[in-house]
Amino acid sequence: MGFCLEVSGEFACFTRPEMKVERVSYDVITPSAARAIFEAILWKPAIQWQVTQIDVLSPIKWMNLRRNEVASIISASTAKTAMKEGSGHLGLYADDQRQRQQRASLLLKDVRYRIHAQFSMTDKAGSEDSAAKFADMFRRRAEKGQCFNQPYLGCREFTCDFALANEDTDSITPIAETRDLGFMLYDLDYSNPSAPNPLFFRAQMENGIITVPSRNSQEVRG
Q: pLDDT tens across 146-155, in order?
């Protein structure tokens, strides 16, 4: 079952993994970030989303920004304790942190994409589950603007607006630009949960359209 969303936001940062200190964004949204937007609207163990195409609707624009970041993270043991007991202190307050780091970020500005994706049923689907059931569920939630968590563009502070594509948005043509985007992060392979393996593919933008290969394609490399 396939759907098309139009997403937009003031800022975005799809961080390149090869940049260790300063955040530098890819030129466009990555398939994993696009998939996360669909999952924010509807995710169930019975379905799996696959992004098939990304249309870049706004010119690619950049901006530099310096941000203060904290070095601390919430410990996994604290999170596990809160999950078991049903309550716990999971907050992290920047004002209380002694170690802060000022980092420069190269962000995208005023982004707008049309994302095509489809879902397939997984082996966790029950006898009462069907593709039509989840398709209707997703359509209703997307039309009402409902989501389990606020979709974002790479970083959680860069939230995005989303809407189902319609006749008006379909008439918007992608940017007239063709370029080789190089190797881009495709997704993470969680076959080994303790050590996720990053997957990459060679992204090509043809007149503003990026065709995303399937996960099992030879174009996706680990």
A: 999 999 999 9
